[in-house]
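Team,

Forwarding the record for the chain on the shared tracking sheet. I've put the sequence and predicted structure together so nobody has to dig through attachments.
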Amino acid sequence: MKISNVLVPVDFSPPSKLAVDYGVALARSLRATLTLLHVVEYPSMAADPNQCNEDALKLSALLGSEDKGDLNVQTVVKVGDVHDQIHSTLREVNADFIVLGTHGRGLLGRAFVGSVTQKMLRKLHVPVLTVCHVTGPLKFGRILFASDLSAAAQEAFGFALELAAQTKSDLTVLHVMDYPGLNYGVLEADTSVREELADIARSRVDEMAARAKERGVTVETLLVRGKAAEEILKAAEKNDANLILLAIEQKGLIEKTFLGSTAERVVRDAYVPVLSVPVTVAEEKERRLAS
């Protein structure tokens, strides 16, 4: 895992300004370039032809003198559709990480940042860090990796492991036995079946723990029963997690229950940042390098 360019879209709302703070902290921690983007939509541009210049100054003002001095920072102002311009900028600056501030209203809110976040989670091929109810500065110490034990989660675990190693964080691997009959293709008919499913889950979680130990990462495992989103949020609070990491399996839309509604609920309600990692990260990078 190599994060070399962090992109932060900014609409100057409080959540997006918080996202800038997190983008600065990430760029400094990972020694990455920081790109701040603001998109001027057409009606606003038509009303004030000087809008782009003014917004460029506002972007620069979000950074302290220390940030400008020791970080590689670039500011970009574009005109057009917000979603389209985020995607085009992502390609142009070769960003491999995006930080978004989002509101906690409704499903993911109906304001600018909320609607954009929802689209980004569905369509982007790079990790997306969302901040919603977060009030404190970004820090690393414990990463909570929530796994449904799917192939997507297994792939994302490699990302979680590398991030923990790079940031010297401890790692908690959580699996929530939500609907085990659906997860493993069998009906939960009796106690013996439930115990067998739990044994399978425990074995897979233990395998991930073994990989973490080989990498030199301090790890603990949690296996609980309940509703996935509720248990993830509870575990983050109880274990003092600084970051929640989820796998997103991309098929054009978020389709799986765990990776769809659960991810949206966690993003909306978490009091710590949530990092959503698409399983297409590796193959997308290879495709971009080959093109």
